[in-house]
Amino acid sequence: MAGEEQHDGAGDHEHNDSPHPAKDRQHRAKPVTGGAALTVPPEAPLVKVKGSGLSGPFIRRPVMTVLLTLSVIVAGIATYGKLAVNDLPAVDYPVIQVTCSYPGANPTTMANNIATPLEKQFLQIPGLDIITSTSTQGNTSFTLQFVLSKSIIDAATDVQAAIQRATGKLPLDLPSPPTFTKTNPNDQAIYLVGLLSDTLTDGDLYKYASTAVAKRIAILPGVSQVNIYGVQAAIRIKADPAGLASRGLTMDDLAGAIKAGTVYSGAGQFDGAHRTFVLLPNGQIDQAEGYRNLIVARNRDGSPVYLRDVAEVR
After folding, report:
1. Domains of the chain
2. Which of 264, 266, 293, 307 gives 20 to 30 Å between its CA and that of 240?
3. Distance CA 276, CA 270 (A)
4. pLDDT tens string for the chain (314 positions)?
């Protein structure tokens, strides 16, 4: 017994002298049964994160990536309220408007004889994005919209060349060749004014709007352009086909006589000893009565045929 006590005491002494008494007690408290040995798995090796391309630096440096993202977000929030916003930004849109007039032609004639030849030439222009055409009574208009990368100057040059190529396919009696202008969606009307009168005629009202109202609006600060729409004062001549046929006249004879009777040209000059006088006859007729007395032709007996005999002038 004594030997056993000494042995136990010696074991206690050795246990107390161990540098890790807690681990020893824990080892003895959990004996391994069945004769199997307790093994500790080795720690997994650290794998270095690699990235390729643009994402490589951000994958290897996550802290830097987070800070950079937060900086971008904070900068965006701080500058959001300072962004300049405009519904119609000042962009030089390459848009060209083409118009052509053919008095007396109906919309079908305008579409077949005017719009179609021009449209075929316009479609050959490089950089053309959208083309729209409208044919009405005696008038055809095109809106040509080009890509933003095309200069408005180059677009105008191409449109002019296309019009020249189509001139030979247009009617020979076209009063004037098609014209084009540069347009900008920013130049839209922002204020409309309507004029009404119970005493003035439509022509007088148009004259008052152009001479009095438009000029005053044009001098206001910030006003770039003033457009006037309405009925201008005009003298209307309605031909009588039966009256023309009875006298052996045609519409071309009537039109030629009206044009020749209202020509404006110089009549020469008087040369004096000390001064010269230039003759400027006024061949323009601005009243309906003057057109009524215009001589269109003469009968076989030499008597004049007045315009009032073959047409209604008002």
Report:
1. 95-186 (3.30.70.1430), 189-233 (no CATH), 237-313 (3.30.2090.10)
2. 264
3. 6
4. 444 444 444 444 444 444 444 444 444 444 545 555 556 566 656 556 565 677 777 788 888 889 999 999 999 898 888 877 766 666 667 899 999 998 878 888 899 999 999 999 999 999 999 999 999 988 999 999 999 888 888 999 999 999 999 998 998 888 889 999 887 666 666 788 888 888 988 888 888 888 889 888 888 887 877 888 877 777 888 888 888 888 888 888 888 888 877 766 556 777 878 888 777 666 667 777 878 888 888 888 888 988 888 888 88
| Cβ–Cβ < 8 Å for 97, 142 | yes
| Cα gap 262→167, rounded to integer Å | 28
Distance of CA 198 to the CA centre of its chain: 39
Other CB atoms within 10 Å distance of the CB of residue 87: 5
Query: Which ranges constitute the DSSP H helices of the chain?
Result: 2-17, 21-29, 56-60, 62-80, 107-109, 116-122, 152-166, 202-208, 214-218, 241-246, 251-261, 288-292, 307-310
Could you tell me the pTM of the whole model?
0.44
47 is written with which tokens? 């794998």
CB 216 within 8 A of CB 290: no
Nearest of 187, 190, 92 to residue 145 by alpha carbon: 92
